[in-house]
Amino acid sequence: MYDQARAQQAPDKLRGSTERRATGPEPLLPSDERDRLAQRLQEALNNFPDSPLEALEEAEGIFDEAITQLKTALTERQRALHEGWQDHDPETQSNELRHAMREYREITQRLLRT
After folding, report:
1. Any residues with CB less than 8 A from the CB of 112 and at least 6 apart, and which?
2. For residue 13, pLDDT beyond 50
3. How confident is the model at residue 87 (pLDDT cuts 50, 70, 90)?
4. How far apart are CA 29 and CA 23, in angstroms?
5. Are 11 and 105 in contact (CB under 8 A)?
6. Do 6 and 14 contact (CB within 8 A), yes or no?
7. CB count, 10 Å around CB of 103?
8. Phi and psi of 21, rounded to 5°?
9. Are 44 and 58 within 8 A, CB to CB?
10. pTM of this prediction?
11. CA–CA separation, 38 and 61 (whole Å)
């Protein structure tokens, strides 16, 4: 049975006292890719005083690339979550359903905060 009160608890409150949760949610993009995009954006910002139009075009391209990568990552996360609970018997798979609900909640809340 779905436990609404438990599903609304923060994920770290659901774990045992000996189990540790990593600090913060899992990033949507790999750190090397985030670093690469951030470096490119910083370079565009640094070039703005000398070449404002080129710097702006570069920043727009970086933004477009970040959107595309985030859409891909979110689509993959959605697919994996859906496969994890689809066609499961709710009575026998309640842990998997709770996990999927927490994941959906966490990702959606992150999107709404940004």
Report:
1. none
2. no
3. confident
4. 16
5. no
6. yes
7. 19
8. -100, 140
9. yes
10. 0.66
11. 12
